[in-house]
Amino acid sequence: PPSRLTQPPRVEVPDGYQLRCADHSDQPALVSLMADCGWEFGAQRIEYCDSRLLPRGWFVVTQTATSAMVGSAMSLHNYSGRSTGSGTLGWVGCHPKHRGKKIGSVVSAAVTSRLLEAGYTDIELYTEHYREPAIVSYFRLGYLPYLYNDAVTELWRDVCGRINQPFTPEH
After folding, report:
1. Is-above-0.85 flag for pTM?
2. Is the dihedral of CA 68, 140, 88, 35 positive or negative?
3. CB pairs under 8 A, 24+ apart, for 165-170?
4. How would you list the strands of the sheet with 86-94, edge to edge?
5. Angle at Cα 17 formed by Cα 12 and Cα 22, nearest 5°?
6. Helix pair 43-52, 27-36: axis angle to 10 deg
7. How many whole angstroms separate alpha carbon 100 and alpha carbon 98?
8. HSE (CB half, 13 Å, CA atoms) of 76?
9. Is residue 88 helix, strand or coil?
């Protein structure tokens, strides 16, 4: 919502983890992490993301003890091609063994802050309605669903009921 555009979310990294910007040397670990999350992330997708990635816009969380990448998200320019002025919180992933520790929230907050810092006022993300823990974190960060037809509105009314989130379509 417009009221949140001047209030970047706070990034609070849990003990035992570190947040940092990633670079090209992290791509193999990203491919592995995305596979652990159930997504194929091959060379074509990496190339497309690289073409849309903001400078200092790829954030990862690593486990301090092992340096293993356990979370990732990207700040992407107009990823969907929908609007030349849109920024996208994209490819949020958290290793299944590290879920429940707000790792997804950490990388999502970092990306959201980076997009706001870059001047984006149209920030979007894509998720599936069954990813309820992720949806809770997106609401906490200020994201709202795009209700573009009656079926989607009813779907989000149901999702909000399941996660105890007030359904306020007037926003």
Report:
1. yes
2. positive
3. 165/135, 165/136, 165/139
4. 17-21, 53-63, 69-77, 86-94, 122-125
5. 90
6. 110
7. 7
8. 25
9. strand
